[in-house]
Amino acid sequence: MYDLLKGLRVVEGSAFVAAPTCGLYLAQFGAEVIRFDNIGGGPDFRRWPLADNGSSLYWEGLNKGKKSIAIDLTRPAGREVAQRLAAAPGDDAGLFVTNFPVDGFLSYEVLKALRPDLVCVRVMGWADGSQGMDYTINSALGLPLMTGPADDPRPVNHVLAAWDLLTGAYCAFGLVSALLARTRTGQGREIRAPLSDIGAATMANLGFTAETLMTGRQRQRMGNDIFGAFGRDFATRDGRTLMLLAITPKQWSKALEALGLTSEVAALEAELGVTFATDEGLRFTHRARLYPLFERAFAQRTAAELAPAFDAGGVTWGAYQPLEAALEDPRLYKDNPVFEDVSHPSGLNYPAPGAMATIPQDRRGQVKPAPRLGQHTDEVLAEVLGMSAAEIGRLHDAGLVAGGDGR
Amino acid sequence: MYDLLKGLRVVEGSAFVAAPTCGLYLAQFGAEVIRFDNIGGGPDFRRWPLADNGSSLYWEGLNKGKKSIAIDLTRPAGREVAQRLAAAPGDDAGLFVTNFPVDGFLSYEVLKALRPDLVCVRVMGWADGSQGMDYTINSALGLPLMTGPADDPRPVNHVLAAWDLLTGAYCAFGLVSALLARTRTGQGREIRAPLSDIGAATMANLGFTAETLMTGRQRQRMGNDIFGAFGRDFATRDGRTLMLLAITPKQWSKALEALGLTSEVAALEAELGVTFATDEGLRFTHRARLYPLFERAFAQRTAAELAPAFDAGGVTWGAYQPLEAALEDPRLYKDNPVFEDVSHPSGLNYPAPGAMATIPQDRRGQVKPAPRLGQHTDEVLAEVLGMSAAEIGRLHDAGLVAGGDGR
After folding, report:
1. Alpha helices by DSSP H, A127-279
2. What part of A 310-349 touches B (C-beta under 8 Å)?
C-alpha cells in the first residue's frame, strides 16, 4: 500500500472482476475504499476457487484492503443507505465505483440529486445496457478464432479475463481523472466503461480493425507465432518448451548469437536476398525458412544450457512453466517484495500482493487482507453517514444491515 | 476526446504497447501528449500490420491525438533535448511516461536533477530490469498451459497482449494519482510498472495463486469451460458456435428458459440431489451431465432462432464471429458513437475510436489521428522549451532534430 491517494473516500457497489479491481487499485494507492454488498454477499461472494471452508479465494483476492458493509439491497430503506454512501459528503468523497445497472436505484440521476458533483465510474457489459460479460463479448471480437494452433479450427477463449482487467484499470484512471477535473471546476461526472467499447476500441488501437478493413478478413490463425516479427515456442533437447521473441534488431542479433545461428542465417539471407536484422517483418514473411534452423538449435541444447546462455546474452525469452513452478520463481513470487504473507478471511495464510507498481522513493505499506463481509458496517454508518449508535441499532433490528458476524 | 485532463502536458518516450496506450488514454481525456522518437522512428515505427505504403497501422492506432517530435537520441546533445522535455516546466507538466531503461539517460535520478518534483511512470519488462515482453512473461505465469482444448497439451499463447494493455491503463492511473499527490504535497515520484509484477500480482488478485498453493498444482486445462460456473461454446444446428454463460441465478434460469431445459434440468437436480440455481459451483462440478442437455438443445435450433430468443430472454451469450463480421455489428463498430471516420498518416481513411469510456454529460470531441513522425518538432521546441527560431534552426542544421518531412 502506498499513500498517493490518502484521504480519498471511494464507495464501491460491485461484483466480479472489473469494478472490484478498480477499487483494489485505488485502495492499494491509499484511498479508503468501502465496498457495500447485499447481506449474505453479492453474486461473486462464493465464486470459485473456494477454500475448504467455503470461502472464496477469488473474492478475498479482489477485495484486499477494502472496508465492507452489508446492506439489504432488496428493500427501499436498504437501497437508501447505499445511495447515501455512494453520494457520501466531503471534498475527497462522492466517488463511486459500480457495475450496477445504468437505470436502477444507483443510476447517476438518482445519485446526482443527493450530490450534484458526484463522480461515478460505471462498468457495463454492452454499451446499450444489455447483458454482456468478458467471455461473451470476447467471442464477438474475433480473438477466439485467431487463438490456438493453426491446425485446429476450434475457437479458443482466453483464460485470463483481459477485458475485465483492462476495464478495471481504465476505470481507476477515469475516477482519478474525473476527481482531478472536479477539484478544478467543481463539476462531477459519470464515466461509463462498457466492456464492449473497451474491446472494440482496443482492437482498433492495436491495428486489428484497420488491417481487417484493408484485407477484408481478420488476421489468420497462426498458433504461437508472433505476428509481424520473429517469435514462437521451441522445444529443447530435454523436452522443455521455451518462448523466444525478437522484435528489435538487438533482440534478433542476440538470439542468433546465443543459438549459434549467425552464419546459418547469413547464408539464408544471401540466398533470399534479404536482411533480417533491420526488418522484423521479413523475419515473419520468411519464418517457414527460419523455423527449422531454430528448431534444430533448440533441439541440440537442454533448457539448463539455454537459460544461462540466453540470460548472459540478453536474449528475450521465457520458459513455459506451470503456476506451481512460477510460485518457486524468485523473480515472480518467491523473493518478490510486492508480496507479503497475509492472514486472509478464509483462515488461510498465503502471500498476497500490494500495489502492482513500485515507487522507489516511498515505503511500501503493509499488504492488508480483504475484510470479512460486513466487518465495517457500524464503523462506516457512523463515520461516513454520521449515524448515532441508536440509529445504527435500529437498522440492525430491522435487518437492513448486518455486521461481520452476519447479524 | 474529452476535456477532463485539459491543461496537462505529458511527455512520452516510448515504444510498443504499454507505454503508448498510457499516453493514448491520457490524450483522449484531454491531456497534451508529446511523444518523442528517434529520427526515423523508434523500434515500433514499422510494426505490422502495414499499409501498402509501408506505414504502420499499429503505430497510427496507438498514437492518435499525440504530438510528435523526432530527436537524434544517439548523441548527447539530442539526449539532452529529450531530458529537458521529460522534465518540462509548468504546474501541470513534468509528467513523463516511458519504457526507457531504469538506468539510462532517462533515469529518474538524471531527470530529477532537472526537475525535483518530476512524476515519471516507467513500464518495465522484468522488475530487475532484464528483458521481458508480454509473451515471454506470460509463458512463465502458467496461462498458456491452461489455455486451449483439453485434448491438446501444446501451450497456447494469448493473441491479445493482455499484460501490456493492463500495464498501460494502470500506468495512466498511476500518473494521474501521482499528479494528484504532487498537487497536494509538492512531491514527485517515479512509478515503476514491471509487466512481471503486474502479471504475478494479477494472478494472485484473481485467486489463481491461492488455488495453486492450496492444491499444489495449477488449474487444469479445460478448453472453453468457464471455471467454477456454467459456460462454454455450443454448436447450433446450422454450424454456428455460440458462447453461453451463467454465473448468477438469474443468468442460469434465463438460459434454461430460453433453451426449454427447465424441466430436464429439474429432473437432473432431483436425480443428483442438488440445486443448480443458487450454486454455480455445482453447475461446474456436474457439467459433464449438464453439457449433453445443452448440446442437444443448441443442435436443435439455428443461430437465427436462438439469437432473438436469447436477447428477448435476457440470456448472457455471444456469437463467435470473425472481426470482419464484428465490423458490421452495429453495437461494436457500425453504429458505435465511440468511432469516427478519420484520415490517418498512412493516407487511409477508416473509423477510429476516441476515449474508450463515455461521459454522458460531456460532448465527445473529435477523434484525432496520429501525427506524422516529427510533425510537431518545431512547435514543441518553441512552446515547451522556449527555444528561438535560431536555436531550433541550429538543432536542425546539426541533425539533432527532424521535422515532419524527415529533415
Report:
1. 134-140, 143-146, 162-185, 195-205, 208-215, 249-259, 262-272
2. 311, 314-327, 329, 331-333, 336, 338-339, 344, 348
